[in-house]
């Protein structure tokens, strides 16, 4: 989305992501996110809000999203839209992938 914004194609890219019935964002927060990228994420989530389904996987606790997204206000706005009409599933335990490496 950031590259699309720099090339003046953001609106077209947002429309494309907003039309999918299900969008999966995997490992949110695994790689660093800039404040500008967090704002783009908000725009995407807001555009899909109450219209399409979104799944986000992350190891970042919800209480730490403000730090990861560089803004408590942005994190709260995103989470407000994500958790409304949603199911939050917490998976606890050791990594399934690492279990095969360390028997």
Automatic annotation (TrEMBL):
Record-annotated IstB-like ATP-binding domain positions: 2-99
Superkingdom of origin organism: Bacteria
UniProt-recorded Gene Ontology molecular function terms: ATP binding
UniProt-listed GO biological process terms: DNA replication
InterPro entries to which the protein is assigned, alphabetical: IstB_ATP-bd, P-loop_NTPase
Pfam families attached to this UniProt entry: IstB_IS21
PANTHER family: ATP-BINDING PROTEIN RV3427C IN INSERTION SEQUENCE-RELATED, CHROMOSOMAL REPLICATION INITIATOR PROTEIN DNAA
Protein's name according to its UniProt entry: Mobile element protein
UniProt organism field: Limosilactobacillus reuteri (Lactobacillus reuteri)
Lineage of source species: Bacteria, Bacillati, Bacillota, Bacilli, Lactobacillales
């Amino acid at each position: 989305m950031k590259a699309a914004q720099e090339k003046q194609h953001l609106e077209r890219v947002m429309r494309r992501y907003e039309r999918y019935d299900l969008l999966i964002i995997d490992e949110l927060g695994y790689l660093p996110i800039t404040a500008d990228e967090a704002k783009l994420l908000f725009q995407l989530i807001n555009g899909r809000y109450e219209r399409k389904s979104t799944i986000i996987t992350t190891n970042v606790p919800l209480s730490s999203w403000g730090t990861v997204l560089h803004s408590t206000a942005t994190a709260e706005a995103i989470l407000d839209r994500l958790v409304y009409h949603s199911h939050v599933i917490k998976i606890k335990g050791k990594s399934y992938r690492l279990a095969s490496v360390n028997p």
